[in-house]
Amino acid sequence: MRGMLADVLSPYRLLLAGSGWLTLLCVDQVPRDAPLRIAVVLLFVLLCPGAAALRALRPTRGGAAEAGLLVVMTGLSALVVSATALMLASRFTGSHTLIVLATLTTVTALLPTRAAPVDTG
Questions:
Q1: What is the pTM (predicted TM-score) of this model?
Q2: Between 7 and 64, whose confidence is greater?
């Protein structure tokens, strides 16, 4: 039990879980056209939802390039799915999309990890 609590409270998982909420704070506090705001939102959308999902799922091991591409593609997929769902619900805004992605990132970052798959090849 203690090992599992230490895993949940690891700095990486906590930073990943809070990354979306920090992005929303930046969106609220920084002027609309500021390069900092654009960079923070772009980095969050491209990296954090995908990293949280892949951390929870632990797919088969590959190289660093494969893992990086999988993180970006998973993050963009989460963006497309959440934006589409909000459009269908007639609630689409940038802030609503960030809230959905922040929630998704927080939940998946705090999920317990699965055991690493055995590589048979």
A1: 0.84
A2: 64
